[in-house]
Specification:
It is a single chain. The protein has 471 residues and is an alpha/beta fold. The chain has 3 domains: 80 residues; 166 residues, no CATH class; 185 residues, Rossmann fold, CATH 3.40.50. 39% of the residues lie in helices and 18% in strands. Helix 3 runs antiparallel to helix 4, helix 3 packs antiparallel against helix 10 and helix 4 packs antiparallel against helix 5. The protein starts with 8 loop residues before the first strand and ends with a strand.
Length: 471
């Protein structure tokens, strides 16, 4: 962290890189410089944040409410002479709500509301309520958008309430009905989230009967959208409102919203792979593979691990218990839910993400560059590709050359790859629409284009081998 006692250093605009997602906040912007993450708080907001730092409020919110660690610096931006530059701790990996299981989205929503509730008595508020304001450090949500904190708008209870509905309450209600995949797809709309019209159309008839206010809200929304003059009149009336909303009223409203959030319970739809590892028969020596992977980790001591096709996370948890930061990826919502619950219970540094390895999260947002694609966000020292090869090759229809190219892209140093033979007992579980023709030798040859050392070891059954690959 920078030492505030040092002489002020003036940073030119050409020296810094403004974050592509930081462009509309009137209070400041996020930027990268010399390997660090900084935020320039503009002059209009700088006095508030200097006060929050000096009186220890930010430190208390960091300790008690999951706010990102922030410290003042001695830097200044050339065209922001009255601004305050602060440095943030880096939170890794970058992940987005389109990859979170429902429990992760709910915890991010809880964090947002609990922080807003804490701010209310200070006549402060969160000026937006996007899930993009939250990142996960392991399995712990961190609120990273410092300048979302702003003086309360005394004419409104919470201007960000519709955002909270669109990005938290509606997608979680869809997940409650087993439509989590639909919700995550719609959340790629990073501006509007899930609108009232789409939400109403997607919810079941029983939900609509239990929530009659939904039909009324939808009718009012349609009515206003079709009458621009009336819509403008309503907006002007709201802007001219002189009602002074008391902080206690705002706080009670936020607490009520938190109770609504906590009442949303969901059960992930079980799939064939949710109990895969637990149901492996006694003829398979599961401990042999666990011992081998444990020995590999003890030998190479990676700082971080990417577990592709992690299932319920047996090997993710193994690595995390050895102190390694883990990113775990699987397309099964129920598997990721189970892994997230286990990681939270033990406070382990595992960030589980729902993504299809064959069809991963693409870059999206403005010009397709605002939010980077999954593979550029999860590169790791060591990568696990265990019991996944046949899924990528057969179900995913990818050649071993392309699989090796992917593994090279996400692996910095070491790869632990499991070879699965034609006659493996799990092969009949996969849709086989074409002739399968590969061998251990051909798979090793594909990997050797990118990994100079490959050590072949036994796995947990005769039809499998573990390939320890090093760059």
């Amino acid at each position: 962290m920078a030492d505030p006692s040092r002489q002020i250093r003036l940073l030119a605009r050409k020296e810094i890189t403004v974050d592509p997602s930081s462009f509309v906040d009137p209070q400041g912007f996020l930027f990268h410089w010399d390997g660090g993450i900084y935020r320039c708080i503009r002059g209009v907001a700088a006095p508030l944040f200097r006060q929050l730092i000096d009186e220890g409020t930010l430190a208390a919110l960091e300790r008690d409410r999951g706010l990102v660690h922030t410290s003042a610096t001695s830097f200044s931006i050339e065209d922001e002479p009255d601004g305050l530059v602060v440095e943030h701790s880096r939170v890794a990996p970058l992940s987005y709500c389109v990859e979170w299981c429902p429990s992760m989205l709910r915890d991010a929503g809880r964090l947002t509301l609990e922080l807003a509730i804490e701010l209310a008595p200070r006549e402060l508020m969160l000026q937006d309520a996007y899930p993009w304001n939250v990142l996960f450090s392991g399995s712990t949500p961190i609120f990273v958008d410092l300048t979302s904190i702003a003086p309360a708008d005394r004419t409104a209870i919470w201007p960000a309430h519709e955002q909270f509905e669109a990005f938290f309450l509606r997608p979680l209600s869809l997940a409650m009905e087993g439509k989590g995949k639909v919700a995550r797809a719609l959340l790629h709309d990073n501006i509007d989230g899930i609108g009232l019209e789409d939400f109403s159309a997607l919810m079941s008839a029983s939900y609509r009967l239990r929530h009659p206010g939904l039909a009324l809200a939808r009718w009012i929304d349609r009515f206003l959208q079709q009458r621009r003059a009336l819509k403008d009149k309503v907006r002007h009336l709201a802007e001219r409102a002189t009602t002074n909303v008391d902080a206690s009223v705002r706080r009670r409203f936020l607490q009520g919203t938190l109770r609504r959030l906590n009442r949303i319970n969901f059960v992930s739809q079980a799939d064939p792979w949710a109990h895969y590892y637990a149901e492996i028969g006694p003829e398979v020596d599961k401990q042999a593979k666990l011992d081998l992977v444990t020995g590999v980790l003890e030998n190479i001591q990676p700082g971080n691990v990417l577990d592709l096709g992690c299932n319920t996370g047996v090997f993710s948890l193994l690595a995390a218990r050895q102190g390694m930061r883990v990113i775990a990826v699987d397309s099964s919502e129920s598997c990721i839910e189970a892994l997230y619950a286990a990681a939270r219970q033990e406070s382990l540094p595992v960030t589980p993400l729902i993504a299809d390895v064959v069809n991963p999260t693409p870059a999206f947002g403005f010009m397709g560059r605002q939010y980077p694609d999954l593979w550029h966000r999860v590169r790791s020292d060591t990568v696990f590709c265990l019991a996944l090869m046949h899924h990528l090759h057969i179900s995913g229809r990818q050649s071993f050359e392309r699989i090796a190219e992917l593994l090279d892209h996400v692996t910095i140093r070491h790869l632990v790859f499991e070879f699965v033979a034609h006659d493996d007992a799990n092969m009949p579980l996969l849709p086989q629409r074409r002739r399968i023709d590969y061998s251990l030798e051909s798979v090793v040859a594909a990997l050797r284009r990118y990994f100079k050392d490959i050590d072949v070891r036994p796995s947990d059954r005769a039809t499998r081998r573990l390939l320890l690959c090093h760059k």
